[in-house]
Every structure is written in C-alpha cells, then in structure tokens.
Automatic annotation (TrEMBL):
Alphabetized GO MF terms: nucleic acid binding
SUPFAM superfamilies to which the protein is assigned, alphabetical: Ribonuclease H-like
Stored CDD domains: DNA_polB_like1_exo
Name of the protein described by the UniProt record: Predicted 3'-5' exonuclease PolB-like domain-containing protein
Organism: Algoriphagus locisalis
Amino acid sequence: MADFFDQLNDILFLDIETASLTENFEELPERIQDEWLKKERLIQSPEHLHDPGALYFDRAGIHAEFGQVVCVGVGYFQWKKKDKKLAFRSKCYAHEDERELLLEFKALLEKKKWILCAHNGKEFDFPYLCRRMLINGVSLPEPLQISGKKPWEVRHLDTMELWKFGDYKHYTRLELLASVFGIPSSKDDLDGSQVNTTFHLEKDVEKIKKYCLRDVEVTARVYMAMHPQSDDLEIEIIHLEDSKKDHKD
C-alpha cells in the first residue's frame, strides 16, 4: 500500500476549461472564418440547418483551432507516511494572455517527471494543450511530447479510459463516475456548456477557476476510487492561490 501512495506523488491531475477564440464570429480573421464555416457544415445536423456562423459561440471552444485555453487546473497528492494521511494540493493557472498561461503551465510540467492524468484527457485535454501551445509558439514540454514514443513510454493516464476496461462503445461522463462512487459533484453552479458565456459575456474568470479546480479534485477522487486502498483514509484538501508557488520536489 505504501508503494501505491508513494507513486501518487508523481501524478499530476489536471483539467482545462476552454472558450471560443473570440466573442463574436465576425471578429475572427477572414481565413479562420472560412475554415470555421467548413467545419460548421460538418458538425451541424442536416435536419437543423443554421445560419453561417451561428454555431460558433456554442461550439468553437471545443476545437483547438478555433478556441483558447481559459484556465488549467492541476492537483497532486502528497503521502504523509508518519500520519498515514494524504494531502491533495491544487491550484489554477489563468491569465488574460493565453500564451502566458501556457508558459506558466509548461514551467510546472518541466519541474519533474510527471505522469499526467485527466478525464478524457487523451481525447481532449492533452491534444488541446499541445495544439494551443504550438499555435502560440510554445514548445511542448516533455510530458506532452508523444511523437516517436512507444505506448508504454507515454506517461498519460485517463480515468475515462481506465473505466472502460477495454470497452470502446461509449463515453462516460466524469459526473456519472462521481455519482456512482458517491463523490460530491463539481457542477453545482456551473458546467462545461456555460463556460463560454461565463468567460465572454459575464467576464467571470474566478467562477470558471473554481469550477475547474472542483473538476480536478473530482478526477483525483475518481482515480482513488478505482484503486481502493483504505475506506477510512483522510484526504486533506489544500488550494494554492498563488500560481508562483509550484511543486518543489
């Protein structure tokens, strides 16, 4: 059991929140507008056709070429052997300049040989971060470099993939796993579909950051539930507000 908890210290749990690149479709550069219209024709239902650009505000944020990273929430466990307690330390990176946000996050990833873990991270969070970094002229930190690596050399974990146990039939929401494991919801006053409105119209980044941190904690608790060790294990939650106080191991 001690080995399991020691290894937890190397796992960085993360979640990203994204929004459309601009508030209005018309603000996009003309070439990007043309590309979005091509994308839009592919994602809209033939039975429900929309005016050109009408889907941009609600749908662009999930596509890295037309969206941006609003914040990155991270968290990691520290095993206190003497007290037999776990501390979960988390914080959120956010910056009005996306490039600066990504550079701050990159600096954290370069501090140690992290194992990255996110829910649906292999399909969304990890590739989205890679694409936005390259678009912003940021070189990829080692944990996000997968080109040329063998599968067992890629240090990525995905709680959705772990839950599939080889079943490729359907997507499993983080909220569903939280529900079946009895983990408190992260969707109390915000969910992913409302992030774009909260960011562009309400200008409430703090609300998004709090939601992102709750998702990180839920992901970490789901991971723990998939590796049951002790039913009475106490977990101390510590939120680090200052993004300059990174992990010092």
